[in-house]
């Protein structure tokens, strides 16, 4: 048996799945960090791999961009493939001035503008929250590895571009949101709905307020920090 968007057999995917938006990041993670990695999905080129990290079975699955796409993969990973720990490894734009490019955020919660959540909760506002055990483990792993992290709330949006992107985030900046990305709110919501654990670890690829953006060298280094934390959770 397989699912509509993933062609793996049940059992091919580990209980712990890392979730980058970019399927080529999934490939890169598998090739760089995992041993004996096998590709289990090429449907729509949304690559998924299972391999081993320090002897532990772990999978990495691209989700695409935005909550509509991510929800499909998250739903199928949980309900067809029995995934239990889902850890997003993504990029985000920081909206606090002091957060530098390449730094790592541990998302405790995610606000957002998903119509899917709005409809599901009949216009009320669900507080999408990370799993505390995974969050604590990630925090301790970062401390052990001497990696600085910011802990707090992020915002998941379905619209990457806007007419006036800096002003758009002013109220959210004031309310302490650390950064903006496009999938975490849906991940946390679905994980709770189906009784599994989720966490989102994000590397800052740009600062929306200051207008800075990362060079490829900086992205490479910071990406490694995020991956080291995420893989410790496997
Ligand atoms: O780097 P990823 O994981 O794709 O995450 C961020 O990058 C994409 C936008 O460029 C969105 O998916 C956003 O959430
Ligand atoms: O979704 C995203 C990801 C990175 N940077 C942004 O501004 N938005």
UniProtKB/TrEMBL annotation:
Question: What are the alphabetically sorted keywords of the record?
Answer: Glycosyltransferase, Transferase
Q: Which GO terms describe its molecular function?
A: purine-nucleoside phosphorylase activity; uridine phosphorylase activity
Catalysis: reaction(s) = uridine + phosphate = alpha-D-ribose 1-phosphate + uracil
> Could you tell me the Gene Ontology terms of the biological process aspect for this record?
purine nucleoside catabolic process
**Membrane-spanning segments:** none
EC class of the enzyme, as a word:
transferase
Entry EC no(s): 2.4.2.3
Q: Which GO terms describe its cellular component?
A: cytosol
Q: Which domain of life is it from?
A: Bacteria
Query: Do you know which SUPFAM superfamilies this protein is assigned to?
Result: Purine and uridine phosphorylases (SSF53167)
User: Can the keyword Glycosyltransferase be found in this entry's annotation?
Assistant: yes
Residues annotated as domain Nucleoside phosphorylase:
17-226
Query: By its UniProt entry, which HAMAP family does this protein fall under?
Result: Pur_nucleosid_phosp
Q: What is this protein called?
A: Uridine phosphorylase
User: Gene name, please?
Assistant: deoD
């Amino acid at each position: 048996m397989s699912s509509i968007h993933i062609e793996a057999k049940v059992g091919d995917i580990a209980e712990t799945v890392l979730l980058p938006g970019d399927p080529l990041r999934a490939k890169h993670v598998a090739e760089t960090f995992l041993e004996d990695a096998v590709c289990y999905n090429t449907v729509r080129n949304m690559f998924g791999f299972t391999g081993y990290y320090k002897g532990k079975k772990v999978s990495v699955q691209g989700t695409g961009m935005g909550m509509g796409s991510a929800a499909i993969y998250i739903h199928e990973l949980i309900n067809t493939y029995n995934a239990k720990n889902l850890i997003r490894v993504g990029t985000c734009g920081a909206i606090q001035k002091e957060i530098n490019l390449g730094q790592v955020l541990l998302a405790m919660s995610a606000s957002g503008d998903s119509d899917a959540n709005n409809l599901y909760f009949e216009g009320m506002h669900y507080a999408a929250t990370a799993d505390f055990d995974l969050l604590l483990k990630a925090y301790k792993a970062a401390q052990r590895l001497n990696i600085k992290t910011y802990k707090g709330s992020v915002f998941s949006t379905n619209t990457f571009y806007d007419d006036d992107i800096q002003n758009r985030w002013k109220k959210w900046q004031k309310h302490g949101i650390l950064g903006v990305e496009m999938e975490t709110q849906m991940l946390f919501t679905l994980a709770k709905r189906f009784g599994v654990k989720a966490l989102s670890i994000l590397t800052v690829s740009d600062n929306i307020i200051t207008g800075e953006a990362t060079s490829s060298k900086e992205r490479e280094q910071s990406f490694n920090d995020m991956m080291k934390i995420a893989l410790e959770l496997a």
